[in-house]
């Protein structure tokens, strides 16, 4: 996670208005990772007063929040979701918007994440950061794995540290 913290700190340099979009379903085991990150962020007050952080819970239809995110006018948008990156459960990958769709599979969306990210890239004048967390299982009715619960907390801590 040290490399994640360093990379986030570099990518969030100069951030003034940060939107964090958590994606996932609480009904599908580890698919809840993005929502767990939001919950941890909402509990913390460790952000510089000069930075405004707003969380958006996208569930399985994050496209429904595009208007609200545009109104917020973020300088930086962080999208957190489970992603099959071919690693062990709980592994984390930080991506640029142009890297989405290159052999990485995101989980349970109504529209492909690539379309959503392309929309944000063209409609927002901001830095877009995508964080993917490798699930153990996204089967309906499955329990969350300890690895993904732990990684979700670490991702939230890394975001907060980068913004403090």
CATH topology: Rossmann fold
Count structural domains: 1
How many helices? The count is 5
The CATH architecture comes to: 3-Layer(aba) Sandwich
CATH class: Alpha Beta
Task: Provide the low-confidence segments as ranges.
Answer: none
How far the N terminus sits from the C terminus, by CA atoms, comes to: 17 Å
Protein structure class: alpha/beta
Characterize the structure shown.
There is one protein chain. This protein is 34% helix and 23% strand. By secondary structure, it is an alpha/beta fold. The chain has one domain: 3-Layer(aba) Sandwich (Rossmann fold). Strands 1, 2, 3, 4, 5 and 6 form a 6-stranded mixed beta sheet that branches. Helix 2 (33-43) links the parallel strand 1 (17-23) and strand 2. The longest helix is centred in the C-terminal third of the chain and has 17 residues, at 146-162. The two termini are 17 Å apart.
What's the gist of this structure?
This protein is 34% helix and 23% strand. The chain is of the alpha/beta class.
Chart the SSEs and their pairings.
Elements: H1 2-11, E1 17-23, H2 33-43, E2 52-59, H3 66-72, E3 76-84, E4 92-96, E5 105-106, H4 113-123, E6 127-133, H5 146-162
Parallel strand pairs: 1-2, 1-3, 3-6
Antiparallel strand pairs: 3-5, 4-6
Keywords:
Rossmann fold; 6 strands; globular; six-stranded mixed beta sheet; alpha/beta; 164 residues; 5 helices; 34% helix; 23% strand
């Amino acid at each position: 996670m040290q490399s994640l913290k360093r990379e986030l700190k570099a990518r969030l340099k100069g951030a003034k208005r940060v939107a964090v979009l958590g994606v996932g379903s609480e009904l599908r085991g580890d698919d809840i990772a993005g929502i767990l990150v939001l919950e941890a962020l909402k509990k913390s007050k460790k952000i510089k007063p000069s930075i405004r952080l707003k969380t958006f819970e996208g569930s399985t239809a994050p496209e429904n929040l595009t208007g609200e995110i545009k109104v917020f006018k973020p300088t930086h948008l962080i999208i957190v979701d489970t992603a099959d990156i071919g690693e062990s459960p709980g592994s984390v990958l930080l991506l640029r918007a142009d890297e989405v769709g290159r052999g990485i599979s995101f989980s349970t969306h109504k529209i492909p994440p690539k379309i959503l990210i392309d929309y944000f890239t063209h409609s927002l004048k901001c830095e877009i950061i995508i964080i993917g967390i490798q699930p153990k299982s996204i089967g309906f009715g499955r329990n969350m794995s300890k690895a993904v619960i732990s990684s979700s907390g670490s991702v939230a801590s890394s975001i907060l540290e980068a913004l403090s």
